[in-house]
Structure formats: structure tokens, C-alpha cells
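Entry type: protein chain
Record version: 2
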Amino acid sequence: MTKKIAFKTLGCRLNLFETDALVSECTKMDYHVVDFSQEADVYVVNTCTVTNQSDHKSKQVMNQMKRLHPDSLKIVTGCMATNYKEQLEQSGKVDYVVDNDHKTAITSLVENWFEGRTASPDSFEKDLFGYEPADTTFHTRSLIKIQDGCNNFCTFCIIPKVRGRATSRPAKDIYDNIKQVIAFGYKEIVLTGVNIGRYQDEDTNFEKLVEQILEISGDFRLRISSMEPDGFTDSFFRLFAHPKLTPHLHLCLQSGSEDILLKMRRMYTAELFEKMAVELRRLYPDFNLTTDIIVGFPGETEEKFQESIAMAKRLQFGHIHTFKYSVRHGTRAEHMPNQIPEKEKTRRSEIIRHLSDEMKLAYRKSFVGKEQTVLTEQFDKRGFAIGYGEHYVPVVIRQKGLEKNKFYTVILNGIEMQDEPVLTGLLKTQ
């Protein structure tokens, strides 16, 4: 009888890549992958621990899993599993706690379990990049892991503890992985990692890696996921002139205050960030620049908070992912003076979210009357195709009979207000 397995992923694109790879491997092993809400023989939760809220969500899922599926095999992995490994092992809520270093061993653990053998996750070899190219995933885009870990040690961040020091995947493996997923039929490749801008494999840095990927033959486009705004060369921005590289970057600002950035131990200044943003918009006026901002960091006065607002208004981001500062045990910021009350963090967070909504709507409205190359991903109840343009703007193509996972040139003609503003359009007639 075919065994059923379900996955739940919390957190970043790196977790999504790793879950996708495990899903694909399980499918090849004849497991039936089902939705996490369904009955299954195995449940795998890939957790996040970047904030207190992330921990809370991960715990909620684990509690629900234990309550609803007491007889199923329950595995927790990811950053929370790494950070709280002993506590989770002693909690009795799960059967296996698998840290990030041993995540590739999950399929072997499952096989051993059903064959009546038990094995510790730690008995398997550590392997950060030992994931097979995924041909069966939850997504239309193919995520490609190029790097793991971080050496920056920002004062608020626990990621170096749970992901380890920066390690880059061999460039040849990346090229081979991309060629394989293109052969599987994927049309969009997304590079992901913890600090991908610091990629370095022998003489291949991030810029050279991207250049080489863009020379791979095939009908695909390349997207760069979240990056730190440091380590760039002046020539990096020229790469966005290539037709395969999408004009969108998520550059992590965190604060518009030079003083707060210094306390965070960020590797750049607000002035440098703004110069980079201005240069991108000078070269590519429609460029979609999105970012992260942390509010309520220790010592962030109202004046310093207003510096973040002022910078956001000047740069007109396509979206701001807002975080309330969350105390992480073991970080230097945990012991900093002038901690901000939770109520004030919430107030500031709402201000940034409201500003982000205004800028997002204005940015997307600016595309009305223009073209986008839309990769179709799904269909709505009306039978209209939904996908993303090259600028990472969501588009509804108001025509029926289109195909999934195909590029269409679309003339944008309006905005629909759904959970967020979504552009609408019709196919360009030849």
C-alpha cells in the first residue's frame, strides 16, 4: 500500500527549496504527497526561528500535529529544530528532530522507520547541498540553492547559529542543477541562500555566477531572491540589461537610520543603500526594488524611526516586508539598553505597512498601459490565468483557454483589488 506523506514549510525561500527537493525525492520513491490537512502516514514540518512569531507558528503546527495524528511518524526540521533541538527531543511531540545539517537524511529516516529500523539523524553525513534536482514541487518556479550560512553576525540575528558559517555550493553543481530543471520544463529559476551576494567558489563570485547562468540555453528567466546590499561591484547592475534576468531585487534595508544600522552591525550604510537604489532606477526606471524594515530595534527613537519612513518615501519601494524587532536569545541585541515596548513596535509596524500598501499600489498602477511577460501559474474561478510579470508584479490575464507554465506577452489595462492590488491585462495581438 502506498504511504502518504505531508509537508508544512514555514519561513524563507531556502526552506521552500529544501522542502521541494524532499517532496520530489519522496515522489520518486512512490510516496503519495498529500496536503498537510489530510491524513498521512508521515508529517514533516520545516520550521523557522527568525522571530518569536516564527517560533510560535512552528509550535502551533507541532501541537496540532501531535493532537490530530498521534500514530503517524512526525518529523520536525529546519531552523527552530536546530535552535531548540534538545528541548524538542524531550517534548515528546515528535519522533525525529532533524537539524539543518542533516535535512537531506529525512527520506532515509522515513524508509528506516517503515522497515522497522531506528536511526539517529546525526548518524547520517552532514550535507548542505545534497539535494537532487526537483522535478515535482509545490511551485511553478524552480528554487536553486547556491549558498548556505552567514558570516555577518548582525546583533539581532540568530541565523549564523542555526545555519552555520557561510558555505557556497560548487558552481558546476549549480549549472548542472539549472540545466536539469530547465529540462524538466521549469520556466523561471530563482537563486536562493542565506547571503547569496557573498557567494564565492574559487574564482567565481556571485556576479560571475549569474553571468554564467544567463548564458545557459533554454526558454527560461532568472530571478534573484533576497540579498544583502553589500559586496556588490559597480558592474553588477549591468547584468539586469540581459533579457533573461528579471528587473527585481529584494534588498534588505532594515533601517534608514545610520545609527541603528551601526547598532545592528550591518555591513553597509543607509547612504550606500540609497545610492544603489538610485542607480538601479536610473538604469532601469521601472525596476521593482523591495525591502525589509525592522521597527522597534533597541534605541530606535521616534526620530530614528522617521528616518526609515523618509528613506522609504524617497525610494518608493514596490513592497516593504515589515518586522517588529524580536529578542533572540544569544544575540548581542538581547542585552542592549532602551528596549522598545511591544505596543510601540506594533504602532510603528502599522505605519510602515500602511506606507508599503500605498507605495505598492502606486508602483503597480504605473504599469497600466505597459507590457509584461507573464508566466502563468494558476487559474481563478473565472478561468482566467494568474501569474507574475518579469517585474514580479501579479497579473490576471482576462482571457480563457490559456496554458499553465507558459510565457504570454500581456498589455496591462487595469487593477483589481484582491488581497493586494493585482494588475489585469489582455494578450498582446500580433
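Comment: The first strand starts at residue 4 and ends at 9.
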